[in-house]
Amino acid sequence: MRTALPRRALLAAAALAPLSAPRRASAQTQGHLLVIGGGFGGATAAGFARKRYPWLQVTLVEPRTRFVTCPYGNLVIGGLRQIGDITHGYDGLRARGVTVLHDWATGIDAASRQVRLAGGQTLSYDKLILSPGIALRYGAVEGYDEAASERMPHAWVPGDGAQTLLLRRMLEEMPDGGVVGLAIPANPFRCPPGPYERISMIASYLKRQKPRSKILALDAKDAFSKQPLFQDAWNELYPGIIEWVPANRDGRVVRVDPRERVLETEFGEKHRVAVANVIPPQSAARIATEAGLTDNTGWVPVNPRTFEARAAQHIHVVGDANIPGPMPKSGYVANTTAKQAVAAAAAALRGEPVPEAVYYNTCYSHVGEGYGISVVNIYRPNTEGTAIAEVPNAGGVSPRGQNPEQRRLEAIYADAWYESITKDMFA
Predict the structure, then answer these.
(1) What is the C-alpha separation between 271 and 242, in angstroms, rounded?
(2) pLDDT per residue as tens digits for the range 252-305
(3) Are 185 and 325 in contact (CB under 8 A)?
(4) Are 78 and 206 in contact, with CB atoms under 8 Å apart?
(5) DSSP class of residue 78?
(6) For the domain 148-278, what is the CATH superfamily, name and number?
(7) What CA–CA distance (Å, rounded) separates 205 from 200?
(8) Superfamily of domain 15-133+285-356
(9) Which tens digits make up the pLDDT trace of 69-87?
């Protein structure tokens, strides 16, 4: 069993204009970097570009004035955080010199290097960092459409936090003794450990407030990220509360009845629950598909050294929308790959070699109050530069076994990680 890296190594990894900009904006700038999406990938890219390459003109397009993070959203659902604790603004990026436009990007013309905005503007760019996030595949589970998400919230695209707060309110209103049902998708999807942290946080809430209630987790997979660690914790902290049903035991949900709150599995088993959390299958956000950047997987293939889209030059796709090889779709992967994409774009604009690439993933999960677990991995492009590979013996997971002090420290490190990465993102 590999062990987790020391805290100092984890935190060190985290530390790494005009509205319609012409491609050679002025004598003072040597190129216009346009960033679409203000989340873990996009906000990181915009701030990093201004900090590391002050000669770049940087514009960030993000429709929302406040960004609610997916990380720590599960703690809001479980009642251990408030929505304001995970809500961030863009004033820090403006202070760093980023032009921030709150508008929707509605289309990309890769040939002319232009982006259309819903408000009517057209922005030109030299290099585009596209970090649009995911689209929920409504209809992939029969009966689950956008309207159904108001009765069976997904809480997986936080937006303004409404879905997160809806699921929390449903848990608060549920009578003691009710069953909370979760439908969990097959890979790949945003944040592989996220559903299991959510199970843990809901179980923590039920144990405190509704001890006769149970959780039924129906999974389209037979295994999941950090599974032994999660299940050790469930047995220790929440005995008798959680039932996890894998795909090979008929755990894959294929249809739902939102009105009756029924989850139906592949072989016809129907589960009526008091609260249903349906996390549907996902793909890259619509703008990536409409720009012709995705393949038949629904995700964007990219160059592993530059994150430039295979289908279009000058467009670097970071965050959850791409196919990152063995790397998970996580906030930290978005952060670290965004920096490499910016570095590659800046090098290309100056005719310089692309910097050597190394990517990190540090993923903490809260399993209870004062109880954290983690996994760390390091990745590099292979020698040929054709794919990304995990660096052998460079990562690790939390050690198994009951060690209250280790778990307490990892929860503290998780909080430090969140504070560090959000400060890095939002300057």
Answers:
(1) 15
(2) 999 999 999 999 999 999 999 999 999 999 999 999 999 999 999 999 999 999
(3) no
(4) no
(5) T
(6) FAD/NAD(P)-binding domain (3.50.50.60)
(7) 9
(8) FAD/NAD(P)-binding domain (3.50.50.60)
(9) 999 999 999 999 999 999 9
